[in-house]
């Protein structure tokens, strides 16, 4: 029987929904407590309505369930954050402080907090971007993730907090919808390909970005969290790499399964965000320290995405 009791904050978001499913299998559904600001129609239980900015409610839930681990997934993503920078900063930073402080006080043992490729900026080398490099993010989201990384490392060094993190690339899955990111096109494109065999993309044809199929991302997350502490040598956040492609390449991959699929391009404000991010990621440290290895390539992902979304349409 598992001795861990896990709280997922932001369990109804793109990552939370899929992560909850895997954690429930590994730890038993009664040991995975889902929480979000809103309850869904077919809500997975146990569930608590929680705004992570409400520190007292967070503390009450941690005590009520004897929580040992927290996965903090509540955040505003890159595109939404540009529209609401003050709230993005408040949510992304105060949420993290509330959870790190619980760990500092010994109320929880382990914290997972996601960072992002958005920590890099226009002055970062864009190809095969290394773990350690110039980091001058120029989006509110990226600045909050960069600051968050520094705080995670600080809490680890200063207070011994066991916090672990991954710099996610764009995440692509069929079980949940993305919300407010610059990489969201790579999910929408599959839905539109099935619905109307065409897609109008908000990024230009040659905009390459690092991406990952969701099951790889969930596996990376759980593998990192289950690694012995001494293997987790980086306490800011780990680069992990999956697949890198541009809109033209994902369209070509879709055409292998839907030959008459067409794509057009109307870049909007998200183009500038994408242009400030890496095109591909070097994840040597994650591979060496805790054995990370991605499984899905572009065509393998396209096939599973279209098969599964096809059943839903
Ligand atoms: N997928 C995220 C975004 O586009 C990147 O972390 O905002």
Describe this structure in words.
By secondary structure, the protein is of the alpha/beta class. It has 2 domains: 6-170 and 213-239, NAD(P)-binding Rossmann-like Domain (Rossmann fold, 3-Layer(aba) Sandwich), CATH 3.40.50.720; 173-211 and 243-281 and 296-312, UDP-galactose 4-epimerase, domain 1 (Alpha-Beta Complex), CATH 3.90.25.10. 42% of the residues lie in helices and 15% in strands. The strands form 4 sheets. A 6-stranded parallel sheet has the order 3-2-1-4-5-7, sandwiched between helices. A 3-stranded parallel sheet has the order 6-8-12. Helix 4 (85-104) runs parallel beside helix 5 (140-159). It is globular and about 55 Å long. The N and C termini lie far apart (39 Å). 48% of the residues are buried. Bound molecules: serine. The site of serine has 11 residues, from loops.
């Amino acid at each position: 029987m598992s001795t861990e009791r896990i709280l997922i904050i932001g369990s109804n978001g793109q990552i939370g929904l899929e992560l909850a499913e895997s954690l429930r299998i590994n730890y038993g559904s009664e040991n995975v407590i889902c929480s979000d600001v809103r309850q869904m129609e077919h809500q997975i239980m146990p569930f608590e309505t929680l705004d992570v900015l409400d520190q007292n409610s967070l503390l009450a839930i941690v005590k009520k369930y004897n929580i040992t681990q927290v996965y903090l997934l509540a955040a505003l993503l890159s595109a939404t954050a540009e529209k609401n920078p003050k709230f993005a900063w408040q949510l992304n930073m105060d949420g993290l402080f509330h959870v790190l402080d619980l760990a500092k006080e010994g109320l929880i043992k382990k914290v997972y907090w996601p960072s992002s490729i958005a920590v890099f900026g226009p002055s970062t080398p864009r190809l095969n971007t290394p773990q350690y490099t110039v980091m001058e993010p120029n989006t509110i989201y990226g600045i909050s993730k960069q600051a968050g990384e520094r705080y995670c490392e600080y809490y680890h060094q200063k207070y011994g907090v066991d916090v672990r993190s991954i710099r996610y690339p764009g995440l692509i899955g069929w079980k949940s919808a993305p919300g407010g990111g610059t990489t969201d096109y790579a999910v929408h494109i599959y839905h539109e390909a099935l619905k109307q065999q065409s897609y109008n993309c908000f990024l230009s044809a040659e905009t390459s970005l690092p991406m990952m199929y969701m099951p790889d991302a969930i596996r990376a997350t759980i593998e990192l969290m289950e690694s012995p502490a001494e293997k987790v040598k980086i306490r800011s956040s780990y680069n992990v790499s999956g697949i890198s492609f541009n809109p033209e390449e994902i369209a070509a991959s879709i055409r292998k399964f839907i030959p008459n699929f067409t794509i057009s391009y109307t870049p909007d404000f998200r183009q500038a965000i994408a242009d400030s991010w890496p095109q591909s990621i070097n994840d040597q440290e994650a591979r060496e320290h805790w054995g990370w290895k991605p499984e899905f390539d572009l065509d393998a992902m396209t096939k599973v995405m279209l098969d599964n979304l096809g059943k839903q349409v």
